[in-house]
Write a structure and sequence with these properties.
Elements: H1 22-35, E1 40-47, E2 53-60, H2 68-86, E3 90-94, H3 97-106, H4 114-125, E4 130-134, E5 156-162, E6 166-173, E7 176-184, H5 193-208, E8 216-221, E9 224-226, E10 229-232, H6 244-248, H7 250-258, E11 262-266, H8 267-279, E12 284-289, E13 293-298, H9 340-346, H10 360-372, H11 376-396, E14 404-408, H12 415-431, H13 433-438, E15 440-442, H14 446-458
Parallel strand pairs: 3-4, 5-8, 8-11, 12-14, 14-15
Antiparallel strand pairs: 1-2, 1-3, 5-6, 6-7, 9-10, 12-13
Helix pairs in contact: 2-3, 8-14, 10-11, 11-12
Length: 465
């Protein structure tokens, strides 16, 4: 019933001929609505914990149209994307009642989107997740809150970034990194909160030992952080619920023990901040491809938006047979396409087998070494990811104002970064020429590498007050 809208891309990923980009599906659907007389308005409103609210306006078929199942699919995928891009514990669905009822059925305990129901409600916003069915003109007015982030470089600071495979830390003096280290670790599979505390403290104390004093600490990691506390974080997935409070309060505890302010934010935000600082421009979407996919956005005014930007859970493939994420139980989400998980997923298709008893960072290096050696199968993995990236950036551009798309992370190392860029650029130039002109897709330049994730993180605390 929805096959007609799942358009085949003109450029196919070498290892995934059934890939169905959302950007093409949306355009096919909206054109069909237009051809049917323009349909009716549908307005989505997403209210966050601080009372801010995002709106998204589109059009759908009238309820009498036999293609109403396509409308339900289209709107559900929109809601899923917007929830993880912008966040919200209350979702207004202003439009045909049957669509609102479908969203309500999906986003409830026991529904197909029970994961999102729980996380957007209790886990992130500490409220009961609610779907409000209403008319389009009853959706509240937009109320966005944007604020400045970081860019404070004075004094003796530490910046750290906690990835799923490695942790990085820098000692930063007046904006210059005087010491940096990168250490492999295994947080995602470790249940003991003491392990996380000891590893982070070791990194901080090592960097602190390189400076005569310490004024502030800034950190980043995948997840949602509110008041420097981890609401949800993939790093702590193995920590049992009865001990989660120990990692929930991990960073305020470290701040108290070190005796300095500590600011903790999502790693995607720091990625975008680092890009904005180095490029000296705004409208930056940062995409970090590591253990998972992390996103962050600095708007055209140079501020962050208060959105979640958790692109790892946003749908990027509408193929019904797309791979399913083990955590969210949803299919075709970003984490499986723009991270080391994608390399692991595609490796068997080219005959690359990986040992089970080594760290994921070591598994990725095995595949990357084959790519650097020019092995055709390994090259096809990154070529496929480049095609994914091109279509997905066009999709993201329907939700963000993007001047610069900054791509970084362990997956982009070596030749991989160039393959990703060339694949994405080919897609944009052929399918979306106007976007190819207005959006610059790039890897970090040397200045970006000097600023880096950890230096941008170090700039988070404001010690001038």
């Amino acid at each position: 019933m929805i096959d007609w809208m799942l358009s085949r891309p003109s450029i196919l990923p070498a290892l995934d001929p059934d890939f169905k980009p959302p950007v093409l599906a949306h355009r096919t659907y909206l054109q069909a609505v237009k051809d049917a007389g323009g349909g009716v308005p549908l307005v989505l409103g997403l209210e966050r914990g601080d009372g801010s609210l995002s709106r998204f306006e589109t059009r759908v078929f009238e309820e009498s149209d036999p293609r109403t199942e396509a409308s339900k699919f289209y709107v559900e995928r929109l809601v899923k994307f917007l929830l993880w891009q912008r966040g919200g514990w209350r979702v207004y669905v202003g439009g045909p009642k049957s669509i609102g009822e479908h969203i309500q059925q999906c986003y409830q305990a026991g529904g197909s989107r029970a994961f999102d129901f729980e996380f957007m409600g209790v886990s992130i916003y500490d409220k009961a997740f609610t779907v409000v069915i209403c008319d389009a003109d009853e959706v509240p007015a937009q109320k966005e809150n944007a604020s400045a982030l970081g860019r404070h470089l004075e004094g003796y600071r530490i910046g750290f970034d906690l990835g799923g495979s490695d942790r990085k830390v820098s000692a930063v003096v007046n904006g210059e990194a005087i010491y940096s280290e990168e250490v492999m670790w295994n947080p995602i599979q470790t249940a003991d909160p003491a392990y996380h505390y000891n590893e982070v403290m070791t990194a901080i104390k090592t960097a602190a030992s390189k400076m005569p004093r310490l004024d502030a600490i800034g950190g980043s990691a995948a997840g949602v952080y509110v008041d420097n506390r981890a609401r949800i974080a993939s790093l702590f997935r193995a920590v049992p619920k009865e001990r989660y409070h120990e990692v929930h309060d991990l960073f305020p505890r470290i701040s108290r023990e070190m005796g300095v302010p500590l600011v903790m934010v999502n790693d995607g935000e720091v990625t975008a901040l680092a890009g904005s600082m180095s490029l000296e421009d705004n409208g930056v979407l940062g995409i970090a491809m590591g253990t998972s996919e992390a996103g962050g956005y600095v708007n055209l005014d140079g501020n962050i938006t208060g959105w979640l930007n958790e692109l790892a859970f946003c749908p990027v493939d509408y193929n019904p047979a797309a791979p399913v994420d083990e955590w969210s139980k949803d299919y075709g989400v970003g984490a499986l396409y723009f991270s080391q998980q994608c390399a692991f997923r595609l490796a068997p298709k080219v005959g690359i087998s990986l040992p089970d008893n080594i760290l994921n960072a070591e598994k990725l290096k095995i595949i990357q070494d084959k790519m650097e050696a020019g092995e055709e199968g390994a090259l096809k993995i990154w070529q496929s990811m480049g095609v994914y990236l091109g279509y997905t950036l066009a999709h993201y551009a329907d939700f963000y104002d993007i001047r610069h798309a900054l791509i970084l992370g362990r997956v982009t190392s070596g030749k991989g970064g160039d393959l990703l860029l060339s694949g994405a650029q080919e897609v944009l130039e052929k399918e979306f020429p106007a976007l190819a002109e207005s959006m610059c897709v790039q890897l970090p330049d040397e200045k970006s590498r000097r600023v880096g994730q950890s230096i941008a993180a170090a700039s988070l605390p404001d010690i001038s007050k």
